[in-house]
From TrEMBL:
<feature type="binding site">
    <location>
        <position position="165"/>
    </location>
    <ligand>
        <name>(6S)-5,6,7,8-tetrahydrofolate</name>
    </ligand>
</feature>
<feature type="modified residue" description="N6-(pyridoxal phosphate)lysine">
    <location>
        <position position="277"/>
    </location>
</feature>
<dbReference type="GO" id="GO:0019264">
    <property type="term" value="P:glycine biosynthetic process from serine"/>
</dbReference>
<keyword id="KW-0963">Cytoplasm</keyword>
<dbReference type="InterPro" id="IPR049943">
    <property type="entry name" value="Ser_HO-MeTrfase-like"/>
</dbReference>
<feature type="site" description="Plays an important role in substrate specificity">
    <location>
        <position position="276"/>
    </location>
</feature>
<dbReference type="GO" id="GO:0004372">
    <property type="term" value="F:glycine hydroxymethyltransferase activity"/>
</dbReference>
<dbReference type="InterPro" id="IPR001085">
    <property type="entry name" value="Ser_HO-MeTrfase"/>
</dbReference>
<keyword id="KW-0489">Methyltransferase</keyword>
<dbReference type="InterPro" id="IPR015422">
    <property type="entry name" value="PyrdxlP-dep_Trfase_small"/>
</dbReference>
<keyword id="KW-0808">Transferase</keyword>
<dbReference type="InterPro" id="IPR015421">
    <property type="entry name" value="PyrdxlP-dep_Trfase_major"/>
</dbReference>
<feature type="domain" description="Serine hydroxymethyltransferase-like">
    <location>
        <begin position="158"/>
        <end position="430"/>
    </location>
</feature>
<comment type="pathway">
    <text>One-carbon metabolism; tetrahydrofolate interconversion.</text>
</comment>
<dbReference type="InterPro" id="IPR039429">
    <property type="entry name" value="SHMT-like_dom"/>
</dbReference>
<comment type="function">
    <text>Catalyzes the reversible interconversion of serine and glycine with tetrahydrofolate (THF) serving as the one-carbon carrier. This reaction serves as the major source of one-carbon groups required for the biosynthesis of purines, thymidylate, methionine, and other important biomolecules. Also exhibits THF-independent aldolase activity toward beta-hydroxyamino acids, producing glycine and aldehydes, via a retro-aldol mechanism.</text>
</comment>
<feature type="binding site">
    <location>
        <begin position="169"/>
        <end position="171"/>
    </location>
    <ligand>
        <name>(6S)-5,6,7,8-tetrahydrofolate</name>
    </ligand>
</feature>
Length: 482
């Protein structure tokens, strides 16, 4: 079908959908309409966001949404799931083909669900199954109260080694506020204090000392590639299961920007991801696994999950089919090229970047050299229509709430068609805002970590400059709601 025809179909689909919604709750139709206006009018640099295609969006709005389909393909606890079977089997097949994985599980509702499925699959495989075999039991229901108590104790006392939060790790990698930190004894590896880079020898030393059951690799705010072959060597040496959480960079793996040692799929025992970040699909999760772990991951429902979101699994299948097109590889390479242009744009204007640059999809700008906290920088940038999020930098003096950094990612604006010149200009505009932001003071005259003043006219000037680029690269050009 021609692009023009798709555009016209998409426009009428959404115009009509909003009319139907408005007949029930007009304020929701209006908020939905306004969200498109807002997204169109701002520079979205949130590293974990993107813009899914109209085909992906439309797939989510169907009658699959209230189906119950607990179980697995062809083995459901409810009747009438033949079409859900088609959907889930296709999502898994596209995921296996795209990533070259022996097994894929398409049910997790989000990244955190995917990680919980992975953790409990690893615990089942490494702890529960051997314990049952030793006791000569087929399943947990056969155990005496005493044996069950002791198995529960064993399941709850395993060790996990993951990347520290301020080095770029994720809350679900064993941190106390998250359930993962309550399930596991956790220790962390960080980055080299001089270079900000992962130090594999230090990770190996920590692993030898701590002997984790699970070694987690993957990150949300580390601007560099990871050598997963080396992480696997470390895991093997200490008998750990290597789990890689590629939530942020799955698009770069799918698009063959990360290959060889940088592709986690052949090296990890279990890989988890979200589907809505650089992969550009619906909000959801996936688990990929080596054969050895497949049967355990397949028990994600009922182990961790209830009924799958069938409408979202359908949208995952559509997004994964898109990611298998050659054009997705071009997109993924542009994400990385654009991140480099953004980083170079900052460096050439004297700004400080954690690790001194990037070779993935994100840059971590250290705003302390502007005399600002991450919170002040994030707010001033938002005033100027630049949407970012504040983020800790390694050994952050301002803690996890105020922070000293701003994280910026290229997947979303790359989807809009931004290239080298635009990203250089984006760096220029951000530096302009930060240079013209003054930290405020608290009521008792102390330096504030939150308040700030932005120079007069700066926000308008930056909004005008952004509008020029945004108009040149419209978001959802096919959707005309007027
Ligand atoms: C975003 C992210 C998650 C969580 O994803 P949700 O879908 O928000 O639950 C998990 N791990 C990493 C590394 C992430 O970046």
């Amino acid at each position: 079908m021609s692009d023009q025809r798709i555009d016209s179909l998409t426009s009428s689909a959404y115009r009509q959908a909003l009319e139907v919604i408005a007949s029930v709750e007009p304020r929701i139709a209006e908020a939905t309409r306004q969200e498109l206006v807002d997204q169109r009018g701002s520079l979205k640099l949130i590293a974990s966001e993107n813009y899914a295609s109209p085909a992906v969006l439309l797939t989510m709005g169907t009658w699959f949404s209230d189906k119950y389909a607990e179980g697995t393909v062809g083995h459901r606890f409810y009747a009438g799931c033949q079409n859900v079977d088609t959907v889930e089997a296709l999502a898994a097949e596209h995921a296996r083909e795209l990533f070259g994985a022996p097994y894929a599980y398409a049910q997790p509702h989000s990244g955190i669900d995917a990680n919980l499925v992975a953790f409990w699959s690893i615990l089942a495989h490494r702890v529960e199954t051997p314990a049952l075999a030793k006791l000569g039991a087929k399943n947990v229901n056969e155990l005496s109260e005493e044996d069950w108590e002791s198995l529960r104790h064993e399941l709850g006392n395993q060790r996990l080694l993951g990347m520290s939060l301020d080095a770029g790790g994720h809350l679900t990698h064993g941190f106390r506020p998250n359930i993962s930190g309550k399930m596991f004894h956790q220790q962390q590896y960080g980055t080299d204090p001089e270079t900000g880079l992962l130090d594999y020898d230090a990770v190996a030393a920590k692993a030898r000392e701590f002997k984790p059951l699970v070694l987690v690799a993957g990150y949300s705010a580390y601007p560099r590639r990871v050598n997963f072959a080396k992480m696997r060597e470390i895991a093997d040496e200490v008998g750990a299961t290597l789990m890689v959480d590629m939530a942020h960079f799955a698009g770069l793996v799918a698009g063959k920007v990360f290959t060889g040692d940088e592709d986690p799929v052949p090296h990890a025992h279990v890989v988890t991801t979200t589907t809505h970040k650089s992969l550009r699909g619906p909000r959801g999760g996936l688990v990929l696994a080596q054969e050895e772990y497949a049967a355990d991951v397949d028990r994600g429902c009922p182990m961790v999950l209830g009924g799958p979101l069938s409408h979202v699994m359908a949208a995952k299948a559509v997004a994964l089919a898109e990611a298998r097109q050659p054009s997705f590889q071009v997109y993924a390479q542009s994400i990385a090229d654009n991140a480099k242009s953004l980083a170079d744009g900052f460096l050439s204007r004297g700004a400080t970047l954690v690790t001194g640059g990037t070779d993935n999809h994100l840059v971590l700008l250290d705003v302390s050299s502007f005399g600002l906290t991450g919170r002040q920088a994030e707010s001033a940038l938002l005033d100027a229509g630049v949407v970012t999020n504040r983020n800790s930098v390694p050994h952050d003096a301002n803690g996890a709430w105020y922070t000293s950094g701003v994280r910026l990612g290229t997947p979303a604006l790359t989807t809009r068609g931004f290239g080298h010149d635009e990203f250089d200009r984006v760096a220029e505009l951000i530096v302009h805002v930060l240079q013209n932001t003054q930290p405020g003071t608290t009521k008792d005259g102390k330096p504030s970590k939150a308040s700030y003043t932005l120079g007069e006219g700066v926000a308008d000037k930056v909004r005008d400059a952004s509008a020029e680029m945004l108009d040149k690269h419209p978001l959802y050009p096919g959707i005309d709601l007027s």
